[in-house]
Amino acid sequence: MSDVDIAARVRRYIVENFYVADAAALADQSSLLDLGIIDSTGVLELIGFIEREFGIHVQDDEMVPENLDSIAQVAAYVSRKKTAAA
Question: Per the confidence metrics, is the pTM higher than 0.85?
Answer without folding.
Answer: yes
